[in-house]
Amino acid sequence: MGPVTVEEAILSREFSFSGDSPHSCKICQRLVLDPGKAPTIHESWSPIPLGWKYLLARKPRPQKAIKVIRRFKYPADSESESYGIVFGLKLKEICLPSRSVSLWRSLSLSGSRCTFFAYIAHELMIQKTDEKTFQGFSLLALVTSDTVQFGFGIPDNPTELLSGLIFFQNPSRQRYRLLASIDNAAAEDIPTRPINIHPASPESFETSKRWLQTCLDTHACCLKPDGKFMPTRVIELVQVRGHTFLRLRETSGRAWEPYAALSYCWGKEQHLTTTSENLHRHLTRINMKDLPTTMRDAVLVIEKLGIRNVWIDALCILQDDMNDKAFEIAQMALVYNQATVTIAATRAGGVQEGFLGDRRPYPHGTLQTDSVIWELPYRSRAGATGSVILVPDCEIPTQPLDTRAWAFQERLLSPRILEYGSLQTRWKCQGTAELDDMTDGFTNTSASGKGNMKDSLVSSIRALMRPNGRDPSAPISKQDILDLWHEVVDKYTHRNLTLSADRLPAIAGIAKQFGKLLEDQYRAGLWMSNLATELLWHVDNTETSHPKPIEYQAPSWSWAAITGPVCFFENVQIDPDFEVLDCQTTLQTDNARVAFVTSKYGPVEFGSLRVRGRLVEAELMASADFCLLKVKKEDGRYRSLYATKMCLDEAHDGSDILRHQIYLLRLSKPLVKGLVLRRNMGSGLSRLGFFECGPNLVEDENSEQLRSDEYQKDLACFESSELSTVTIV
Predict the structure, then answer these.
(1) Which one, 280, 420, 473, 705, has least CB within 10 Å?
(2) Residue 519's pLDDT band (boundaries 50, 70, 90)?
């Protein structure tokens, strides 16, 4: 191989962080991020060809000092605290002076002393900037409330490009988040704090204890334990003559005591559980050293919070007793709802991982090529000088616990949550909802995955379940509550279950709370008063297909019958000819005790739905690549339907072509939506999927496209059919 050029060396350099301190040197410390006063001239950024951006402004006079020579607001109509800074710095000024060394070589040598300028050299090389243009570059910073990007100004004489304009290249590909410690002057402007790398420090536990006590003492809107309910069993922290040990405690007949609940991922098989065989031994003593790391961490947390009892499902439920397991699972919602605090081990993917270990000082997974950690001076708007740490900004990764379906209702039903994530410890309760919760560092982070709940969703549900009832000053309609339920099901079904048969049990606690609010009848995940609309659930086909469940989960007309994520339509105009005549479900009941607890929100073993509507016989041909739908005409021949969307409930591997004799049941008009049904081996029909007709999926019922001849022919197929009464199971 030939010698490596300077340009190749720069491009191949990997800038990465090592150690606990960001880079800071005399060179980069000369750059002060100074928002100054709000700019008087509002200027704007606009895209033009070749990916360049330009600033409508007069050309700044060149100055030798590294200081701010211009500030501007962007975009011009922005109401946020976003601004740009043009530094009076030509990059050639920081190169080592040498007549025999090119500017590229000089900048590379300068960069060896300062990673900030090494990064800039890397960016310039990637953007294929020629050396002549490079000589006149000025440094540009684009700053929001807590992020920054860097760009490069070109050139001193822009007339050859466009007279009167100063051009800037695209900002660097990497956006950096600004961090400022609470005792730093920059904290006046910068809301994001450094990550607390020691979540188990005495200071961290004191902070958590203060959060808990503040909620219990001052938050009238947060549900408090009623002082009556306790789980059947709890793990008790016992102290005798200065020694601490654990034991399983049965609570029947004993006085009430506060307890915490643990929400966590089991991960692989549990090595320590309570069974009928070891129950007596656990009632006597549980060795702390035998606990997996996550459970051991939870015990440490409750000790520091001043709580003696903790509920952990693996230890408080007899794992080999199906009756005990069914009963305890049925009252699990109450366990979390009445807990003094729920400890959420959000960062741990399994029970052996723990959640109190030290965190990385900066977000992991972001320190890739061209990512550098710096510390730069910052002058606050009040005029005080401090410093900020620049950390590569990134999409917040989904935490392991946020992918689990059982944890969904644990989070929603817990009045107070102490959450240990990979970036921060966070306190969540209704009293802090308007304050974006409380954290021990970094920022209030919520991942963007489809199964992740927005804080606004959690806050809305908690507000509905507040102890004193709904706020009369903020009335909410029944339809609003139903819409909220649809959002809950959407988020819930995007999460994972180890046992798909838990589809209904794992959301039963939330359903019970909604049942109280709606004063409605619950049928396998759907509400009777809104059944016609909710029957139009459909698989979220943006996700990976999920196979058919091995065991029966629910009747085919319920979203609980499948394993994949589902969505609902809102504001559907139901066909006046469609009518729900009857809907019944039979609950799974192993014994009377379980039946009493699960009531109508538990798992079902059978369900039937009797409806009347316009039913059309059709033929379906489908594979992984296409779906052809034909309706049967009065003369017995088939014609293609103008269907533009069809979602089958079950995954198809594409190995062959499915051909079904089916029925199309119309539920809405004039925008036709309905169910795809097929005849069962026994009696009745079962749901196969969902269909909708209409040109380009128009949403406006007054659209001219709905008057097209093709669509009117499709509509006539249903209008000419007789009303039929069918049973769907």
Answers:
(1) 473
(2) very high
